[in-house]
User: Fold these one by one.
Assistant:
Number 1:
Amino acid sequence: MSDLKVDGWTVEKLHDHHAQALRESRVLYDSETEHQRLRVFENGTFGRVLTLDDVVQTTEGDNFIYHEMLTHVPILAHGAAKRVCIIGGGDGGMAREVLKHASVEHVTMVEIDAGVVEFSKEYLPKLSQGAFDDARLNLVIADGAQFIRETEGGFDVIIVDSTDPVGPGEVLFTDTFYGHAKRALSEGGILVTQNGVPFLQGEELTNTMRAFKALFSDATCYLATVPTYAGGPMAFGWGTDSAARDVALSELQQRFDNSALAPEYYTPEVHKAAFALPGYVAKLMP
Ligand code: SAM
């Protein structure tokens, strides 16, 4: 598999027995940053695509699904989130969606790789849509694990928008990191994490859920299908000591109606349904 190459295509070989290929109509950028290989290319279906170490991170075409579900679900379930922390998120898409919430007064975004932020601003402006210029955003260039260990915290929502558990992202999938993240939450705070595609990365989800169950009274995951994260629905880890997951649909609808959100994927019904787990995913829960 390691020698699989097709001219004019980016081949993502994230898994031992599965790969996906995206046609490159134009390569806009290809270089090594201090931490990883960063590429931006254009694809006829998905628009501009960002890869790190040849793994798709985000695309102009389908990023709305991932970013809306990792922001609106915890923020609307919380109901009064003022302080939000994003770990990773260098393309700016997560900050874009968080900052749409009028209740949010302050966002701390901790990205390890300044190169991702700079190149995303230049080559993927549709991702951040000006979020980096919002006065409520404090961008910290640092390892998210180290930051969360040292911060005073007090975050109502922590969103882990990381790469997969290889390279610099590995540390963000450890029990130690999750423990520090829990300590950095305010009372009733919610931790959400990108946890890969369970059909192909089941062990990753099981490991995170084992750690969450030891830390939180409510530990589970919810799902959304993002076309370029191949292999079926993607899992988002959910950990909290509050009853935020049980918010009634009518209350969620009211919070949504009171917000200025006009999402393309998120609806209150989708929010509630996303926590329904198919049998094969439920089996991965420890
Ligand atoms: N949505 C993508 C996915 O599911 O694969 C990931 C998005 S991308 C914005 C993830 C970001 O996490 C990258 O910019 C990467 O540099 C950053 N990152 C990786 N390890 C990190 C760490 N230890 N601390 C902070 N940021 C990290």
Number 2:
Amino acid sequence: VTTVDLGLSHTERYTTPLAAPKAINLIPQPAQLIALDGIFSLSADCVIAQAAPEAAGAIRWLQAELEQQCDIQLPLQRTGHIHYQLNSQLAASSYHLLVEQQEIWLQASDAAGFVHATASLLQLLPLTAEPQGHYAIPMVDINDHPHHGYRGMMIDCARHFHPLSRLKTFIDHLARYKFNTFHWHLTDDEGWRIEIDAYPELTEIGAWRGPNEALQPQYSHLSERYGGYYSKAEIKELIAYAADRGITIIPEIDMPGHCRAALKSLPRLLQDPDDQSQYSGAQHYTDNILSPALTGTYQFITNVLTEVAALFPAPYVHIGGDEVPDGAWTESPACQAFMAKHGYREPMELQSHILRFANEVLRAKGKRMMGWEEVIKGGGVDSQTVIYSWLSEQAGLQSAQAGFDVIMQPAQFTYFDLVQGYSPEEMGVDWAGKLPLDKVYSYRPLAELDPQDPVHQHLLGIQGALWCERVDTQQRFDHMIYPRLLALAEVCWSQPQLRQWDDFSARLHGQLHYLDQAGVQYRRCD
Ligand code: TNX
């Protein structure tokens, strides 16, 4: 065993992976890794020992991955070589992984810990078998725990529809890199992607573009319908699939802005016929905002959120709340009367009115509301609302200082729709600058704050986001996400003092071989 002293306390003693007998390229970097001499030979003769119910999902995931990667089907029997053991001494989400010559031990105190231990084991698995047919897993002793509790990725499935199979593969990768949350952006101006029993129009109309349809005139030249939605059965399937892999799915129903698909699908309920307001949002839509003055708006919110709350087991629902532009609601007699009735002076108070209503619906269903940072405008929402800060690091700091729990998703460091290099052919937007891999890696949330400042308690974690205005194919999806996802994984998980760019780049090469084998069309590194 070669131990390298990095000047850390003895509890943080760390062995650099470079000292391992075989290259160990774990991402994210674990808190403590000791490389041992020798290998465990994994073959079709290996057996997984039956374990506590907390390990059931992780075991199913291990079996699925080994079948896919190695064509090996490991049985589950009373005794075996691979042991999932409950260890109540370990903190939530942390794990101990010990690979010995004859046995593998995965210890955790909860389902999340077992999944993360499995992720490390899967990363130790070589890409090719030895000539004798077995896979040589290097012997290691790993003690590991996450730095940030919430480690998420948002995918915009509204601007373009991503088929369920694409999302499943993506969830496999989220789990492999120890994320624990998938934020599912299901509705927007360009599409409504979730089946709602109360309003079949939302998916009959709102999920499709072209030919000759009202939703997106610029796509009316298309000769075939283009788009899609997720049925409730498919959503349940994805929730269960993600749950095995330790991933919670948080649904987002964006309101009161970004609602064009809903408005065009349900004009009888949602359209204010006398609204002459002139506005144009960030994406130039002039007709995408729910009206606070229509009873239909509240019926719609109640019915949709009730079905969403029943479908998703997560304790949270995200209600959007972003990008309502100036000018909204200003030239509507109904909105003016509504403002006078409630004594509101600013149009933004109307947004708060709608969001507070949504919050009541969710609270009655036992759910906590989440929203983009603009939800604190115009009188704002309940202080229990979780705020996703996206415009800047500074805005996140302010929300946390105001007492909100925050998820940091600053565009400058976490928006994977941003270009990632300097060539003019580079795909992506640059309204928040360029976002090369090393910039993602450099992100430190709330770094300006004194480490002892109690405001840190309001930082729940970090999220990356793929907005998909321009992401319509698997190739583009992969190109924008990978390998930046791996840099973000380490930002989310690893202890800050263990994060070193050169070391990460070296380990990344090992992971890129895996992505190649898995057919991921990642952006080549410079
Ligand atoms: C801002 S971030 C948006 C999205 C866009 C994205 C493009 C946020 C809450 N809203 O609607 O797709 O910028 O980068």
